[in-house]
Amino acid sequence: MNPLLGALQPYPFERLRALTRDITPSPAHAPISLGIGEPRHPTPVLIEDALMSSLQGLSSYPATAGLPALRRALSAWLQRRYGVSVDADTQVLPVNGSREALFAFAQVVIDPTRAQATVVCPNPFYQIYEGAALLAGAQPWFVASDPARQFAIDWASVPEAVWARTQLLYVCSPGNPTGAVMPLDEWARLFELSDRHGFVIASDECYSEIYFRDEAPLGSLEAAVRLGRTDFRRLVAFTSLSKRSNVPGLRSGFVAGDATLMSRFLLYRTYHGGAMSPVVQHASIAAWNDEAHVVENRRLYREKFERITPMLAQCMPVALPDAGFYLWADVSGLMPEPVAAPVDDADAAAPDVAYARSLLAQYNVAVLPGSLLARASSGLARPGDNPGRGRVRLALVASVAECVEAAERIVQHARGLQARSAA
């Protein structure tokens, strides 16, 4: 067996199941899950129709590079959305969801024969970054976000010696779970570091179409063009239809950027077997060519956040994020004492784990403890420096009514905890 598999951490939801397996939720409440970031708004009819009308495509092997019509649709969307021009033949590739591509890309970029091959990634983070680094033969370096600066990543904390051995940098903007969007000056800093040290930037942008203000989030390719980097050197953007179009089961997204990297990635994917089904490709063309359903999807998220954020702010520090469909709530003041968990887990005594267990037991609402989404930040040795500790991720993916009901239960639960603490 590949010995690198032994370095992988259990996935957050696997750990949460183990940490809550002894809990029988109160039968007085129907279950509500705010734990998994799985879009649950209806899939647009136009996508379903495109799927059904393309079933003849099942009789053909697909090309890994995708249909020319799909690549043109992807290029046209980037032009409309970000005002950037990419070559549909050399700078864009369809992928089977951003998760698959984010993992596979590290296997292309990393040279494990170089000493101390390093992958830098934000912390907290999407766990695929860590797994991709480890299985490519590199070591991840975790960079914490700063709550005092709206969860901006503290890139300045990375030593020059680490940047010097870095081969790949993962960024996520809008961030998961914080919802923070990287501004242009932050991109300028990362591009300068990439030029100086030669590392590649993989920009995860799958939450880019869920935002709450008039101005859409800045994308990496857009930032590059604004800064005069029209060749997108050492930069690849990753995006997906899952959140934008409510089709997580379609497994459809694309990557775009540096033509040289795209060529090597295509070579890898040809052998890896990463071709997208022709049926999915036709449905994807319909999705990328339509914005009306995206506007309505965004309206539903905005309604939920406008209603729920003020409710939760009564009992815990929480604020509207820049974008995305998560609230990154601070519950550290609600659970001062650790609560025994049924498994030996390094984060079992964290206040966010105790809070999630208590909320599930009493009110049948599932949330994801923040410490399961993070690691002790690299370069630090202090106990408890996990930047997710004391926070929970609330995924507002259900209907408006269900999310409001969950928020009401969370407020009731918090008030009960506060009353017991004051007694």
Overview features:
423 residues; 14% strand; 2 domains; Aspartate Aminotransferase, domain 2; alpha/beta; 39% helix; 8-stranded mixed sheet; Aspartate Aminotransferase, domain 1; 3-stranded antiparallel sheet
What does this structure look like?
The chain is α/β, with parallel strands linked by helices and 423 residues long. The chain folds into two domains: 3-41 and 293-422, Aspartate Aminotransferase, domain 1 (Alpha-Beta Complex); 46-290, Type I PLP-dependent aspartate aminotransferase-like (Major domain) (Aspartate Aminotransferase, domain 2, 3-Layer(aba) Sandwich), CATH 3.40.640. The protein has 14 helices and 13 strands. The strands form three sheets. Strands 2-9-8-7-6-3-4-5 form an eight-stranded mixed beta sheet, sandwiched between helices. Strands 10-13-12 form a three-stranded antiparallel beta sheet. Strands 1-11 form a two-stranded parallel ribbon. Strand 6, helix 7 and strand 7 (200-204) form a beta-alpha-beta unit. Helix 2 runs antiparallel to helix 11.
> Distance N terminus to C terminus?
56 Å
- Summed up, the helix count is 14
Say which CATH homologous superfamily of the largest domain is assigned: Type I PLP-dependent aspartate aminotransferase-like (Major domain)
The average pLDDT is 94
The proportion of residues in beta strands is 5-15%
Rg result: 22 Å
Looking at how many chains there are and whether they match, the oligomeric state comes to: single chain
SS class: alpha/beta
What does the overall shape look like? globular
CATH domain topology of the largest domain: Aspartate Aminotransferase, domain 2
Looking at the overall shape, the CATH architecture of the largest domain is 3-Layer(aba) Sandwich
How many structural domains does the protein architecture include?
2
- Count the beta strands: 13
Query: Order of strands across the widest beta sheet?
Result: 2-9-8-7-6-3-4-5
Q: Can you write the helix and strand succession as a string?
A: HEHHEHEHEEHEHEHEHEHHHEHEEEH
